[in-house]
Design brief:
alpha+beta, BirA Bifunctional Protein, domain 2, SH3 type barrels, 5-stranded antiparallel β-sheet, 30% strand
Length: 248
């Protein structure tokens, strides 16, 4: 399907009125032999999900999309695309939010507007004849959920103008294509620098909730693999590959 105005060359697009999950559809397409790059988007998801199986609400006016692709770098580096996608989405959301909010990045894969969650990212393996990746993005354009553990917000809630979903997706796809090319050519070094320039809470005290424990310390950045660097005050910072973090 032809993409909207501004669509990046070489990327396909499939639209759905309603689907269980764009990530799940990407995985089904990968199993059938599709390797992309192909963006999938739906007006409504009935079983959208975020990290660790959390539900992600998607209704009319919000953006739900997944990019199915087979990255050009070694498979061991594919998880770095979480940071690539976060930078791309943050740049787009900062443009849409304008003076209404400061847009930053929350490790590992959330986009914040004045400290509230505006968008989230979910990477999942998409196994088929050739290994591929499903890069899911959910953006609160028109509305946001209440009562979430980490406060959420939408562009509408910020008082910003709400772009048509197609325009938001085209901007995201173009921004991703730009940062993906940088990653392919320069590796994670350039991505790490760009991510840290947009990071929320850098140098401040945070809580990091792991699967079986909770730790606290100073957020010192991310290492060469994207793991969070937490200084608990006992010397060298420790690297946490996965955790939920909360700002004090």
């Amino acid at each position: 399907m032809t993409g909207p105005t501004g669509w990046p060359q070489g990327y396909g697009l499939k639209r759905y009125d309603e689907i269980d999950s764009t990530n799940e559809e990407a995985r089904r397409l990968a199993a059938a032999g599709e390797i992309g790059p192909l963006w999938l988007t739906a007006q409504r998801q009935t079983a959208g999900r975020g990290r660790r199986g959390r539900a992600w609400e998607t209704g009319g006016g919000n953006l739900a999309a997944t990019l199915l692709l087979r990255p050009e770098r070694p498979q061991g580096e594919w998880a770095q695309l979480s940071f690539v996608t976060a930078i791309a989405a943050a740049d787009v959301m900062a443009n849409f939010a304008g003076a209404h909010a400061r847009v930053t990045l929350k490790w590992p894969n959330d986009i914040l507007a004045d400290g509230r969650k505006l968008a989230g990212i979910l990477l999942e393996a998409a196994n088929g004849p050739m290994p591929a990746l499903a890069v899911g993005v959910g953006v609160n354009l028109a509305y946001h959920p209440d009562g979430t553990e980490f406060p959420a917000i939408s562009l509408a809630g910020l008082g910003a103008s709400i772009p048509p979903v197609d325009d938001a997706l085209a901007a995201l796809a173009a921004s991703f294509a730009k940062w993906y090319d940088i990653w392919c050519e320069q590796g994670f070094v350039a991505i790490r620098e760009a991510w840290l320039a947009r990071a929320s809470g850098l140098g401040t005290r945070i809580r990091a909730r792991l699967a079986t424990e909770e730790r606290s310390g100073t957020f010192e950045g991310i290492d060469e693999n994207g793991a969070l660097l937490l200084n608990e005050g006992f010397g060298r910072a420790i690297a946490l590959p996965a955790a939920d973090i909360f700002f004090r």
